[in-house]
């Protein structure tokens, strides 16, 4: 069975994390993605540690299933070549600073005159309009600006960033969805369009009930750590050997939790009868629950809770995660051969469908300039033209 996006040509003019993550999703689903990197050093992310034998693991995390070429953006011949590739592609994805594509003569408005069916996907830090349009787009800045950090952490710690670059990653996901929606629309109208998001917009799009709390009733949520902002008990609790997540989200689950913990009197205690009362007395309740939870370990409590219909689970380290039976059973890690690193493990595409049954990781993240000659030939350049571009250092082909 063919992959869903087979036959779709994507020109990847992105760097760092948000754009490459977007195009990796498209590549995982079968699109032909050509990653264009500037000479002499390639994508800036190649310089970010930690490193696996001098290769950035940041780069490895977001660039599989692509073909890579090196082009000198500073030479007119290089920009002319990129323009030619743009006009022969279905989708172009970029995450330059606002206005950069236009300054290079590659802006959507100019390109769509020549190729009306072209689809552009653009990611910026703060959007293409407004007073912050020219601000550089870095994830932690956007996490703070969007209010996301104000929801994370504890009253003692204050605001805290999320442990991954969630603004970058979700911006990439939003644009991947947007350009696919635009491609479906193109099937009907024959016309492309410009799809945009920003790190700021992507994070506001994830505020969910917290954002609605403010918009509807004016509440300004505060960081509440590992407890649920509106349900109690719900969060992280200490056991005999470490923390356990518990999520008894309904009144029935609360009663069953008290049964499992052999604390039946709590269900009639006036401090804890309803969720509203439990919220008011959250700290006292936590202390009582942990007195009982301290009698067993996480691995002992988890099956007891699950059997009683109470969502529960340990807080794993990544070492725990990647040897976990459930993770292994769901094939959430796949292996591909890398030309320098040998067998390379990768976190798999988390989408399952018949077309992806054989796995999502088909080729390793490319070396800088690994496929330049191959790609340019496929786009119609003659061997002589390619050789001249290499000699004049307009393009780079790795050896």
UniProtKB/TrEMBL annotation:
SUPFAM superfamilies: CoA-transferase family III (CaiB/BaiF). Coiled coil: none annotated. InterPro entries: CoA-transferase_III_domain, CoA-Trfase_fam_III, CoA-Trfase_III_dom3_sf, CoA-Trfase_III_dom_1_sf. One of its GO terms (molecular function) is transferase activity. It holds the Pfam family CoA_transf_3. Keywords: Transferase. This is CoA transferase. It comes from Actimicrobium antarcticum.
């Amino acid at each position: 069975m063919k992959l869903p996006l087979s036959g779709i040509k994507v020109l990847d003019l992105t760097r760092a994390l948000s754009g490459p993550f977007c195009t990796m999703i498209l590549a995982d689903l079968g699109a032909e993605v050509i990653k264009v990197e500037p000479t002499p050093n390639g994508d800036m992310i190649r310089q970010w540690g930690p490193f696996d034998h001098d290769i950035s693991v940041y780069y490895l995390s977001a660039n599989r299933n692509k073909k890579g070429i090196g082009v000198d953006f500073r030479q007119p011949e290089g920009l002319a070549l990129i323009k030619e590739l743009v006009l022969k592609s279905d989708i172009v994805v970029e995450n330059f600073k606002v206005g950069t594509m236009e300054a290079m003569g590659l802006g959507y408005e100019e390109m769509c005159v020549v190729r009306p069916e072209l689809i552009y996907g653009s990611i910026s830090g703060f959007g293409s309009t407004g007073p912050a349009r020219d601000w550089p787009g870095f994830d932690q800045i956007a996490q703070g600006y969007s209010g996301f950090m104000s929801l994370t952490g504890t009253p003692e710690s204050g605001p805290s960033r999320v442990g991954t670059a969630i603004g970058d990653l979700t911006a990439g996901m939003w644009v991947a969805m947007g350009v696919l929606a635009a491609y479906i629309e193109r099937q009907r109208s024959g016309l492309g369009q410009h799809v945009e998001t920003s790190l700021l917009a992507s994070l506001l799009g994830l505020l969910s009930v917290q954002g609605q709390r403010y918009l509807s009733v004016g509440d300004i949520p505060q960081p509440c750590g590992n407890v649920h902002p509106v349900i109690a008990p719900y969060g992280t609790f200490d056991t005999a050997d470490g923390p356990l997540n518990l999520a008894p989200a309904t009144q029935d689950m609360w009663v069953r939790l008290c049964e499992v913990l052999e604390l039946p009197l709590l269900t009639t205690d006036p401090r804890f009868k309803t969720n509203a009362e439990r919220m008011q007395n959250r700290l006292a309740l936590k202390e009582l629950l942990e007195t009982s939870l301290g009698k067993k370990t996480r691995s002992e409590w988890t099956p007891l809770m699950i059997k009683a219909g109470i969502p529960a689970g340990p807080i794993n380290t990544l070492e725990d995660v990647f040897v976990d039976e459930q993770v292994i059973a769901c094939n959430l890690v796949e292996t591909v051969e890398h030309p320098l690193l040998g067998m390379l493990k990768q976190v798999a595409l988390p989408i399952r469908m018949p077309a992806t049954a054989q796995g999502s990781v088909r080729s390793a993240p490319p070396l800088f300039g690994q496929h330049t000659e191959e790609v340019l030939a496929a786009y119609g350049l003659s061997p002589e033209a390619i050789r001249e571009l290499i000699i004049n250092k307009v393009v780079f082909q790795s050896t």
